[in-house]
Amino acid sequence: MRPAPGTAHAPPRTARVPHRLTRTTGRANRTTITTHIEESPMSTTPTFSVPALPRRTAARLVAGIVAVAALTGPAASLATAGEVPAARTAAGLRTAAAAADWPTLRAGGKGTSVTALQHLLNSRGQSLTVDGSFGPATTAAVKAFQKANRLAVDGVVGAGTWSRLVATLRDGAKGPAVKAVQTLLKARGQAVAVDGAFTAAVTAKVKAFQKSAGLTADGVVGARTWAALLNGTPSGGGRAALAKQILAQKQIVLATVHPGGKHAGSTARQNIVDTANGRGALTSPWGDKPNRRVALDPRMLNGLLKLGTQYGYRISVSEIVGGDHSGNSRHYAGIAFDITHINGRHVGSGAPHKQFMAACKKLGAPEVLGPGDAGHGRHVHCGWSR
């Protein structure tokens, strides 16, 4: 602490407090040991000087003195006060980051999570154009960040890179990292402006998201909240919350018409709108199970959402519970959807359906059908277990 103007610190005093300890080492010989304990001007740690002694006697004496110092020195007072050393705090933060479920992003990815990544890289000194596309410039920026932080320089953004890239944000923060939070909140169904200012209104939206995700609703964006925002997975959140997030995704296009009939109430988009409003999704009047309200399965909704947010696909959903399907179809159980377009290409006409089908399986869908399967030459069907 600096002295007030016009004053000076008094020189520190050195305290010398002698203590006399007497130890009998044998019946005929009595040895008197005098130990001086001195406090140096720069430290309160005692220093000891001990005359030459028999080896065993000296060892026992030094051990006792060290034990006393451990109980009375600065470390003891720190523990008594209940304070946590900085190293332990940092370890706790690393543990929380490691425990979070981070997505993996790499070259070729697109979507909201990539947009957030670019904002975060800019917050760390990069100057990327934020376009939501994981291209060569983003790959180079990721590698530069990884090299600077002594990470594996592979251009792939996984748990290790995310945990170093994100920062804990709260009310009052400003900058590109806040834009990343706002971008993700908006994509997860929260109405916020992406202006880089962490205001009270943003805090309220963070709390709302945290509550839907089953997290501590404190308004502070730490590792677990970052991971939940990036994944688009409100663990503990209901189907309505997931449906609202799907509606907010520009890369997920929901059909407003049917391929084989007219019924506005059972289109893919209306199925999701009804779910977001807390209602069941409606089947079409011409299907095998007509005019029924079906609760859409959160696993299926989460899979659909992640295909856009985590895998970066631009997709067109043709049917969910609407349309005409076989009598025992998973569509009628609210656990399947059909995709006609992937990244602007029609399935069966150059769309990357094999990679997409593999992603569906990885997201937990055991029934995945597409070109090469009977009746699925022009669309991909992804269905979850009953």
What's the SSE blueprint?
Blueprint lengths: L15 E9 L5 E9 L8 E3 L5 H18 L1 H8 L4 H14 L12 H12 L12 H13 L10 H7 L10 H12 L12 H13 L10 H9 L7 H9 L4 E3 L13 H9 L4 E2 L10 E2 L3 H12 L5 E5 L16 E7 L2 E2 L6 H10 L4 E3 L10 E4 L3
Parallel strand pairs: 4-7
Antiparallel strand pairs: 1-2, 2-3, 5-6, 7-8, 8-9, 8-11, 10-11
Helix pairs in contact: 4-7, 10-11, 10-12
Description:
With 386 residues, the chain is of the alpha+beta class. Helices cover 38% and strands 13% of the residues. Strands 4, 7, 8, 9, 10 and 11 form a 6-stranded mixed β-sheet that branches. A hairpin with a 5-residue loop joins strand 1 and strand 2 (30-38). The longest helix has 18 residues, at 55-72.
SSE order: EEEHHHHHHHHHHEHEEHEEEHEE
DSSP strand count: 11
Q: Cα-atom Rg, whole angstroms?
A: 32 Å
Terminal CA distance reads 67 Å
Tell me, briefly, the overall form: globular
Spans where pLDDT lies below 50 across 5 or more residues: 1-51, 65-93
Largest sheet: 6 strands, mixed
Whole-number mean pLDDT: 79
Number of helices: 13
- Please give the share of residues in helix: 25-40%
Protein structure class:
alpha+beta
Tell me what portion of residues adopts beta-strand conformation. Answer: 5-15%
